[in-house]
Amino acid sequence: MIAGKVVGSLVSTRKSEKLIGNKFMIVEPLRHMQADTRQIIAIDNIGAGIGEYVIVAQGSAARIGCDMEEAPVDAAIVGIIDDGGILEKDDAGME
Amino acid sequence: MIAGKVVGSLVSTRKSEKLIGNKFMIVEPLRHMQADTRQIIAIDNIGAGIGEYVIVAQGSAARIGCDMEEAPVDAAIVGIIDDGGILEKDDAGME
Amino acid sequence: MIAGKVVGSLVSTRKSEKLIGNKFMIVEPLRHMQADTRQIIAIDNIGAGIGEYVIVAQGSAARIGCDMEEAPVDAAIVGIIDDGGILEKDDAGME
Amino acid sequence: MIAGKVVGSLVSTRKSEKLIGNKFMIVEPLRHMQADTRQIIAIDNIGAGIGEYVIVAQGSAARIGCDMEEAPVDAAIVGIIDDGGILEKDDAGME
Amino acid sequence: MIAGKVVGSLVSTRKSEKLIGNKFMIVEPLRHMQADTRQIIAIDNIGAGIGEYVIVAQGSAARIGCDMEEAPVDAAIVGIIDDGGILEKDDAGME
């Protein structure tokens, strides 16, 4: 998984029927996290708000682990990090 | 998922039988989105036109979530972004 | 999927039994396509020749979409691009 | 798989129900290992401590291979490397 | 798949039960192959020796194609390349 910050959301009116009712959040991975710090669009089932630090699961884990087995989803917010702000300051990891 | 712009399409006459009837769209991820801004070839089930901003799902999500479980497809356009042009201007995400 | 050019092939005498009878083609992704322009080794079920421009599917799509569900294959040529040479000249996509 | 060093852990109180009881470890891949040396968040089923060198499996292997088939997990620590410190010194691999 | 050279092996005494009996080989992808030339840890079912040039399958192909469906494995050596040394000299592919 990667850790990132929710920086926005997307609206898509014309979309796959299986995506109706889902929120598309824009997550920016932390600089020292995998994935080139490029942003990811992730489904949110946890209720993360903009500015919160989250854990994002990618690949089939997003579909299967979030009970959306049949949906075209490859990334999902699966947890909100406690004290996530610390992560951004500390570039080498934290305990 | 990633957000990108449809910049063209591809024609393939000799192809896997399971791909017959599908359109191959060339999608250029937005600069601040994951995937090195390199272009992706994605199947389109939504009816996206060239110049539109779209959401692309990758991996098994493209096959399974688009009811093409048996097709050799690893990327699919799953939504068209409302006001996608704003995304290109705003490099840090948007609400 | 990505678009690339077949630049060669590989011979492997000692290999997984499930790969017997398959051809290993070396595909070089086009410069503006995803995957860092590094070469990929892909199974060919379409009959692509060296120098041809092809569409390559990666991940589980290669196995499942090419009826090789039980084979250790993560990339397959799934289509030959008509007029592929144009792709190499045009860096921004084409219609 | 990749080899890396456990550099910390994350706490997430609000998370997917399927993740309850799991530890999120922050793993930093070794410099000469795949994945851009960016950190990964991996579930730990082996009991790795901070500072230990570990093997991390990614993708569906993490879920299925760790008996968490239904959990939104895309990376898991699957082994602790004996004499892992040697790996960090030797940049070209070791026997 | 990617082509690489076996440069070493890893020992892991504390590991997932499902990995017992497997060898962890360190494979360095060829410079012009996908994956940033960073090293990968791959299971070996073919009997590759250090210094040999091999084909590595990644993702679910490694598990399913190597009859290790339940193991936390995301990369496997699936073939040994005949005359692999030529690959290292020739940067543009070969026939």
TrEMBL record, chains A, B, C, D, E:
Keywords: Bacterial microcompartment, Carboxysome. It comes from the Bacteria. CDD domains: EutN_CcmL (cd01614). SUPFAM superfamilies: EutN/CcmL-like (SSF159133). GO terms for cellular component: carboxysome. It is found in: Carboxysome. PROSITE patterns: BMV. It holds the Pfam family EutN_CcmL. This is EutN/CcmL family microcompartment protein. It comes from Wansuia hejianensis.
